[in-house]
Amino acid sequence: MWAAGTLSVLTATSAAGDAAISIDVHLRFNHHQPPAELVAAMQVEAAAIWKLYGIELRWQSPAGHNNGPTSFDVLLDQARYADASMALGDARLAAQSHEYVAIRLDRAATEHLLRHVTFEQVARLTGHASVQHDDEGRALGRVLAHELGHALLATREHQAKGLMRSAFTGEELLTSARDSYRLSAVETTRLRSALAVRHHSADDY
Q1: Which of 50, 52, 53 has the alpha carbon at shortest distance from 7?
Q2: Residue of 155, 173, 176 whose CA lies nearest to 164
Q3: Which pLDDT value is given to residue 116?
Q4: What's the mean pLDDT in 51-58?
């Protein structure tokens, strides 16, 4: 049975006077508790990517599920499927185009991709001989940041490069550099518009 979490969006005011967005993430897991190092690295990476755009990810306890218009389910799926599509994650649309009701991260698919990175590449990218829990967590954090992008940008579309490209390689997920996990200027403008719509929906809820 899958356990899910909640992602709710709150609006605050930054010190500069601009609208700042805080997102409360209630992350849960199925099957078993993953290593603490993995979870911590995943949270740090996803938060760092979105911080560039004035969005703060606030990690909360799993309690307090919210079914409002600014609520998302976030699942770190640790099941291993015989017919797995090998998609690293997915975000499912709700009835309204600006709402997403579920975000799923596939840990097994991510591990599979990382296993295909050569020993030499792992050593060059991470500085150690094999993929560690924090390396896997960083990779999952990037997948989560991408899926959050679909939700926050209110689009299923992918871009040729950047955070919202359609596929990541194992090497891209392992590198410590975040340069390839950014939004374009057009996407940043779209983000502001989408967040304004979502905030309006939250006010009406």
Answers
A1: 50
A2: 155
A3: 93
A4: 91
- In this model, does residue 29 exceed pLDDT 80? yes
User: Which pLDDT belongs to residue 62?
Assistant: 62
Two structure tokens written together for 43: 């949270």
Confidence at residue 123, expressed as pLDDT on a 0 to 100 scale: 96
The CA-based dihedral angle spanning residues 22, 166, 90, 119, taken in that order and rounded to the nearest 10 degrees: -100
Whether 67 shows a pLDDT value over 70: the answer reads: no
Nearest to 60 by CA among 70, 45, 50, 74: 74
Phi and psi (nearest 5°) for 10?
-120, 150
Strand partners, 28: 75
Record the tokens describing residue 194, joined without a space.
């989408």
Sequence letter at residue 59? W
Pick the closest to residue 104 from 138, 136, 140 (CA basis).
140
151 — pLDDT class (breaks 50, 70, 90): confident
All residues at 6 or more sequence positions from 160 whose CB lies less than 8 Å from its CB, including other chains: none
Closest C-alpha among 55, 59, 56 to residue 74: 59
25, exposed or middle or buried, with CB in 10 Å at 0-12, 13-18, 19+? buried
Query: Quick one: pLDDT at residue 96?
Result: 56
CA nearest to 170, candidates 144, 128, 138: 138
